[in-house]
Amino acid sequence: MSVRTALAAAVAAAALISVALSPVSSAAPSESAAPPTPPHGAPHHLAMRTNHVQLDSLEETDQAEETDEPNDPDAHYLGPKLCSGYYGEHRARNVPDAFGGHNPLSVCGYTPEQLRFAYGVTQAHERGAGVTVAIVDAYASPTMLADANRYAMNHDERLLTPLQYREVLPPSYNHLTDGVCESPSSWATEEALDVEAVHAMAPQANIVYVAAASCDDTDLMAALQKVVDQHLATIVSNSWGGVPHSIYGDEDPATMAAYSALFQRGGQQGISFLFASGDCGAVDPAAECATGSARPQTEYPAQDPWVTAVGGTSLAIGPFDNYGGEVGWGDRRSMLAPDGQGWAPAAGAGQWRYGGGGGTSEDVPQPAYQDGVVPTALSTTLMSGAKATKPMRVVPDVALDADPMTGFLVGVTTKQANGLPGYGEASIGGTSLATPLFAGLMADAQQGAGHPFGFLNPALYGKAATGAFHDVTPTSLCPGLSRPGMPPATVVDLGDDSAGVHQARLYQMGDDGLLSTGAGYDAVTGLGSPSLSYLRSWR
C-alpha cells in the first residue's frame, strides 16, 4: 500500500480540542493549568499559548490501529476509521444526513505536495533557496530533525540536511513544573508542526529553530531579541499568543511597547515577523476555548501594528491537488446520538468549538496601511459592540488553511496510546498551521524577488484587489459539495468505540462566532488567502 493510500484510509482530524488560549494539551481545555494570579500591584506578564488544534488523546487511544507488523508504516498513522485523501473524496454514508444530504468525510491530513500545488508554489517553481526562516517556540524537541526527516521520507519529500536546519537553545529552561507552561513534550507538537509546515512550502529554505526558555512572554521576547540582534533570519514564524485583557489582569503596557519596538527595529533591518491570530475567534468568554479571557478581544502580539497577523480558513483541495475554495475557519460540533439516528445538538445548532482569531483591537490605533482597505464600520466597532472614537487596528492581515477538518499531516515523537514515546502522524490545524505555511510561502517569494522584504504589511495591503488574494466569502468552499442555502459541513467518523458504540462528529464549517467573512477585507481572513498569482506579484 502506498503512503498516500494509507493516509486516505487511516488518518484524519479525529476528535479535536481547541487550545487557542490554553497550552497545547492532550486534556480538555478546562483541565489545563490556569496561570497564577499576579501579586497585587505587580505588572502582569502573559503566559503565551500555542495556537494549534490537535487530536483528543482519549479518542486517539480508542482509535489507535493495532498491527502485528512493527515496521508497517500504517502503524504510525493515527485517526478515525474513515477519512478522505482530498476534500470531498468520500461521503459519510453510515451516519444520519445533515443540511439536506450526505456530507464529506473529514480530510485525512493534507500532504506537503497538496498544499504546495493548491497555493501556487508548484507552479511558481521557487522553493525558498537561499532564504532562512526562524521559528520561535518555547522549549525544544530533542527529536525534531529526526522527526522531520522521517516525515519527509514517508511522503517522498526533500530531507532537511544538517546544514539546512539548526537550533539556537537557551542555557536552561523556566516554568518546567509550576503549571505556568505546558510541558516541553507538549510544545514539541507545536515545534514539529511549525518546522514541517515551513519545510513543506519552502523545501530548500534554511530553518533555524530558536527556543525560548519558557512560554512567559519575557522569555519569548528574549528569543526574538536574539533573532534580531544576530540577524538569524529574514522571516520569523510565531505560532503563539495570548489575550492582553485576561481575568488575571491586563498585559503590562511596557512589555507590549518593548515587543513593538523590537518588531519595528527588526522590520527596518529586513526581518518579517508573522504571528498566528488565534484559534478562538473573538475570544468571547462565553466560548469554551476562551478560558481566562476578560472580554471579546484580539490576541497579542498578533494585533501589534508591526507584525503580520495570519488568520485561518477551511481549505478544499481537489483530486488533482487543485485549489477548490476556502471559507473562513469556524466550526460548530454535533455528536452522533447514542442510538445513531440523529445528531446532538441538531445540525445547525452545534456547539461552537473554535475558529480563526480576529476582530478589532481596543488597544492599537489603525495603522496607515489599513486606511482605505479595512471598512470604516469594522475599524470603528470594538468587539464589545461599542463605537471607537477613532479607527483601530483590525486583525488578521491574511489567512491560510487552519481548520483541523482540512488540516496538515504532522509527524512527531510524543507519548503514544501505550504510554511510551514513539513517532506518529496525525492531522493538525489552527492558525499555528496557517502561520508557518505563510512563512514558507514568503520564503519562496523572497527567493523570487531576490531580496528580503522586512515589514510586510504596507506591501500586502498594496496588493488588495489585485488578484494576489482569494476573496474568501461564506460561499467560496467547493460550492458543488454543499446544498444551496446550506452551510458546508464535514463528518469525522471514528468507528465503534471499545463498547461497540458508533462514534462520529458533525462539524458545521464557516461559522466564526462573533466574526464573519464577506466581500473584500474581513475580520476572519483579512485580505484573503494567497492565490495562484501571489508569488508572481512579488517578482
TrEMBL record:
Cross-referenced Pfam families: Peptidase_S8 (PF00082)
PROSITE patterns: SEDOLISIN (PS51695), SUBTILASE_SER (PS00138)
Disulfide bond recorded as keyword: no
Top-level taxon of origin: Bacteria
Domain Peptidase S53: 109-539
Signal peptide interval: 1-27
Keyword rRNA-binding: no
Keyword list, A-Z: Hydrolase, Protease, Serine protease, Signal
Name of the protein in its database record: Peptidase S53 domain-containing protein
Native species: Catenulispora yoronensis
Lineage of the species this protein comes from: Bacteria, Bacillati, Actinomycetota, Actinomycetes, Catenulisporales
